[in-house]
Recover the amino acids of this structure.
């Protein structure tokens, strides 16, 4: 069932993306620009995800039994897990620095709405960390 | 923390891939353990020690200053 879903979902993504793309082209003049942009955006995302899914599935099928076992082992290998966790941890800080940089840029440019938006993102970025720390503290 | 994995493996003529298969990790993890770039979890240390028929303390050498 899970395997079947893995095969069907990417194709479904491409079909839905193509339908949305066609709708965006056909309704071009008769719908607001924002909606047209959203249709193009969602269509692009769906088609991109679908194509990636199909490509990944094809690459997986090409692997031998040994290579598949090795790939599956690599997924849960404790060193790889530790690498992913450390990478996610440092990514959190890099995102924080980028948000601070964006905050000061918008502040110096004197733009009100972008400053408020970046401030909200900064707060959410830190709140998500604290929420997740709380969740993990309960589990460990 | 240092370990005797490479020494024990060579004494018993076991390849890194064989040890990796036996303890269910990638060969890269065994390489990193042998080079001292990565410290094994307690579970992995237990599996490796068990594989060699030894205790964790006999395979993994804990140094005082790290404690």
């Amino acid at each position: 069932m899970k395997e079947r879903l893995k095969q069907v979902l990417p194709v479904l993504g491409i079909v839905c993306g193509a339908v949305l793309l066609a709708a965006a082209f056909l309704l071009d003049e008769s719908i607001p620009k924002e909606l047209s942009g959203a249709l193009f955006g969602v269509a692009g995302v769906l088609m991109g995800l679908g194509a990636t899914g199909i490509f990944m599935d094809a690459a997986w099928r090409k692997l031998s039994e040994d290579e598949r076992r090795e790939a599956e082992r690599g997924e849960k290998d404790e060193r790889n897990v530790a690498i992913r966790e450390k990478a996610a941890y440092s990514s959190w800080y890099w995102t924080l620095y980028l948000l601070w940089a964006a905050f000061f840029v918008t502040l110096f440019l004197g733009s009100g709405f972008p400053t408020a938006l970046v401030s909200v993102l900064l707060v959410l970025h830190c709140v998500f960390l604290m929420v997740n720390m709380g969740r993990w503290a309960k589990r460990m | 923390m240092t370990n005797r994995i490479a020494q024990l493996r060579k004494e018993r003529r076991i390849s890194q891939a064989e040890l990796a298969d036996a303890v269910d990790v990638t060969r890269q993890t065994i390489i990193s353990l042998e080079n001292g770039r990565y410290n094994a979890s307690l579970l992995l240390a237990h599996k490796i020690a068990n594989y060699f028929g030894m205790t964790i303390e006999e395979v993994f050498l804990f140094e005082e200053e790290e404690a």
Remarks:
- Chain A has two domains: 1-62, 78-140.
- The radius of gyration of chain A is 21 Å.
- Residues 78-140 of chain A form one domain.
